[in-house]
Design goal:
2 domains; single chain; mainly alpha
Length: 272
């Protein structure tokens, strides 16, 4: 099945979406908003077909290599935003979110896309649940990151969309970021637990202090701290946004930067 064709089509739709956002910046129109929504949904559908076809061709879940994982992250981010869009978040957030998807797909195009047999240690339902939980969490956290970054950049001086005057820009973005973390954090917890069970079934230990295990725990702790200071100490706005941004930077480093660490050369989680 030609998953590559659909992937290229999804990339093209993402680029068209960004062009539509540029037009929207200069010419606000209900028709342009409808076009953007249609492009976002179409891009997600085409990307979903590409991931599904890759899964069928490979005969295993499509996250056994760095290429597959980056594409799956792009899919998760796109899916998270489209779902959140239909639950009422501002359409304008889609411009930077789509930018993240474009960067991910562009980076994937530089990687080896060959389908390789799955290693025996990776043939586990525990691993499938572990990875899917994490990547859905990463997709949601990408949207949360965008909201937090915009909050820090604008400082609550204006609103994202035409909302009632009492709905401050900062409060709106803060709520979006918080809701994203409340969805992603349980998924990260599931990912940690199922990863530990998988490790025990595969290597006979729940935790081996592997560099990626350690970094994943740091990510979990950062977001646990975010929820703690927000719920217990009442942090809102910029202070909470800083933690959300730091947490996602740790996520990106854990996902993409691990292989550049000398101490991670022998990591069991290192992608090639």
């Amino acid at each position: 099945m030609n998953w590559g064709l659909f992937l290229n089509l999804a990339f093209g739709l993402c680029v068209l979406t960004e062009v539509a956002y540029i037009v929207r910046f200069f010419l606000r129109s209900r028709h342009i908003d409808l076009v953007i929504r249609a492009l976002l949904v179409a891009g997600l559908c085409v990307l979903t077909v590409s991931v599904a076809f890759r899964w069928i061709d490979a005969g295993h879940p499509p996250f056994a290599s760095m290429y597959e994982s980056v594409v799956f992250f792009a899919w998760a981010t796109s899916a998270a935003f489209v779902i959140m869009l239909f639950r009422g978040i501002p359409l304008g957030l889609g411009a930077p979110v789509t930018g993240i998807v474009i960067l991910a797909l562009g980076y994937a195009s530089l990687l080896d896309d060959a389908i390789s047999p799955l290693l025996p240690a990776l043939r586990s339902n525990w691993l499938t649940v572990h990875v899917i939980s994490y990547f859905i969490a990463y997709g949601v956290l990408a949207v949360s990151f965008v909201a937090s970054a915009i909050l820090l950049a604008t400082g609550g001086k204006k609103r994202v969309e035409s909302e009632p005057a009492s709905d401050r820009h900062e409060d709106q973005l803060d709520t979006i970021a918080y809701r994203g973390v409340t969805v992603a954090f349980p998924l990260m917890t599931i990912g940690l637990i199922t990863g530990a069970v998988w490790a025990d079934r595969t290597w006979g230990r729940y935790w081996g202090w592997d560099p990626k295990e350690n970094l994943s725990l740091v990510c979990w702790l950062v977001y646990a701290a975010y929820l703690h200071v927000r719920l217990v100490h009442g942090w809102r706005g910029k202070r909470a946004a800083v933690l959300a941004v730091v947490g996602f930077l740790f996520v990106l480093f854990t996902f993409l930067g691990l292989k550049y660490l000398p101490l991670a050369i022998e990591s069991l989680h290192r992608y090639v």
